[in-house]
Amino acid sequence: MSYNIVSFCGGGIRGLMSAEILNQLWAAYPNILTKTDLFAGTSTGSGIISLLLSEKYATPPGVISYFQNQEVSFFSNPKYKGSQLPSPEPWYAVSGVYAGQVAIHGPTKTLNGFTDQSLLFTSFNVQNSGDLGWTPLLYNNLSKSTNGDTAIADAVTSSSAMPGMLGSWKGNVDGAFVNHDPTIAAIALAMNEGIAIEDIVVICIGTGFMPTYLVSDTSSWGAAQWQNGLPGNPDHISSLLVGGTVSPILSISLNGTSSSLMPTLIGMMLPGRYVNINPVLNTFIAENDTNPADLKTLITAGQADSPQIEQAKQLLQQYWV
């Protein structure tokens, strides 16, 4: 019997595209919601899972509606009104994210309170967590979990607290600092539960592949160039952190590992049992972008057919039964 994982990557408002992809798969194979053993999320991916676990937004159309209304409203009203960059304070209040989660699940419902499926929400603690100092957090409700008594509102808020965009939550920041893609963490948790890797099947839903590379000769770059880029930004690198500035090394660290490395490694680990659905976006869409034309781009990309969509449907037909 297979062990089925569906994972959702981070990307802010681009989760709208992820929800559209999920809707495609769900329309053809509704079992994707009921026969998935483990849902894994990072940042906006954690938010998608939270919505699927709710009473009001428990289907992909409900998630899409939430993004088009509540998420767009949230990102359209930044707390920071200044012009200084990098911004000296978060652009949005993290308490607003928490309030949204409390409105969905209440303040006390824990991960262990969900018994139908296993859950994983990634985060990263930057406070003093004992001898290890700062450390990755894998909030989950699997049988060997040590943090299943965490309230889902706290876990999802912690997973979503991207520095620059939001302040930290209880000393925790965005799960992207574990990785934008939570898939490999989900595989590790499953194997820690005794699941054989030969039984693991994964569908990973991304938030859009936006190719990034440096055109400049970097052979003589020092720390200043790697941290801050070049004057005039000839490499056309988009700012990764909302309210931040261009940082090639940060973009490599956070985006490079999830956009290509993770799919490459996981594909080696799960031959024929893994698909990564991450449509190419030909324009940069920031995590807090609410431009109607860009939102339409996300919707169109999420609704489009692709070889990866067809591969996912084949996995659903074979394993989600």
Q: How does this structure look, described?
A:
This protein is an alpha/beta fold and 321 residues long. Helix content is 40%, strand content 12%. It contains eleven helices and seven strands. The protein has helices spanning 15-28, 31-34, 44-52, 60-75, 94-105, 152-160, 183-192, 223-228, 248-269, 292-303, 307-319; strands at 3-8, 38-42, 118-125, 135-140, 172-174, 200-205, 274-277. The longest helix is centred in the C-terminal third of the chain and has 22 residues, at 248-269. It is globular and about 55 Å long. The protein starts with a strand and ends with a helix.
Features:
7 strands
Structural class: alpha/beta
* Rounded average pLDDT: 95
Please give the share of residues in helix: 25-40%
Q: What's the number of helices?
A: 11
Quick recap:
This protein is of the alpha/beta class and 321 residues long. Helices cover 40% and strands 12% of the residues. α1 (15-28) runs parallel beside α10 (292-303).
